[in-house]
Amino acid sequence: MTSPAADRARYDRATAHLDAPLALVDLEAFDANAADLVRRAGGKPVRVASKSVRCRALLERVLAQPGFAGIMSYTLAESVWLARSGFEDVLLAYPSTDRQGFTELAGDPKLAAAVTVMVDDPAQLELIDRARDGGREEIRVCLELDTALSLFGGRVRVGARRSPLRDPAGLAELARLVQRRDGFRVVGLMAYEGHVAGVGDDLVGRPLRSRAIRLMQSAARRELAARRAEVVRAVRAVVPELEFVNGGGTGSVQQTAAEEAVTEVAAGSGLYLPRLFDNYTSFHGRPAALFAQPVVRRPGVGVVTVLGGGYPASGAAGADRLPVPYLPQGLRYDPQEGAGEVQTPLLGSPADDLLIGDRVWFRHAKAGELCERFAELHLVEGDRVTATVPTYRGEGRTFL
């Protein structure tokens, strides 16, 4: 692993022939992060979350590595596109109301065999049937378990609001309903514990909050492991041939994989390692995806202004949703302006060493959302760009 200063020099040399703004992926860091995810999974396959990658070439690269199997997609249109592109195992992680997509799925045996859709409500089955338009292909179905931690008799909830199904009886009943319905088959179960996998537990300068998060996550893991095992037993009693039980995310790979009931884990953000994944005690990776903005102004001592840069991430609004100035180290936002739509002032002593046309390298707060800002990614090995590949956006695909 090289120093930040050495990395900055490498990236500047590698992209000297390119105009900024631009985005790159350091393939050595990307591959090292992939290998670490496989190590942490302890022999269970890792399904790649495509929303965190959003680049077909890099999805193909990681799936070619031992230990990875299948894609977890985020829209039905994306799922169909990936299946038509040759990806053979695509699990749609969210329910869909894409009628055109369901028409294609029900009418094409290759698509129907490659794509599994998410269901947590009988009304979703009704919508799919109405969209069939004569298509008779069997739809592969995955059921989703709500993983949120419920405290004080349900008065306090910790976790994302996803599936309404929490208990073994509810999941088993929906499994029976799906199995009895012509044209559908339950093949999997998913339970994503975002309050564990997606929340850092080592916040800089906040030891008490970090301790509270660790206590919450420990309790959540124990509760969910017991409940998930009960749910899997109940669903397997209805569907003995259940193909997979998916769980986890980048921040919980090793803990989720350790559960006997889980057959595979999901991860994606850990490949790029955006800034929101810096604050974990369970693992440490290498920043692999960066973007560069050019210095266009020098307003005064200790200040430079770069072009653009206002690329906030989704989630509850806050400073942690902003990209972070990464290289050179020591730059910070002007609190009066923050990350701007067309220009971003940056403060700090390193600004005095930057000239017009120099680059400031940033890390996005979240992983795949960076690719919605750039049409292509420059793949860097050592101090050379060895390939340039399109993002989803660069291929004309903006699914969400």
TrEMBL record:
GO terms for biological process: D-serine catabolic process. One of its GO terms (molecular function) is D-serine ammonia-lyase activity. Signal peptide: none annotated. Residues 25-273 form the Alanine racemase N-terminal domain. InterPro entries: Ala_racemase_N, D-amino_acid_metab_enzyme, PLP-binding_barrel. This is Alanine racemase. It comes from Streptomyces venezuelae.
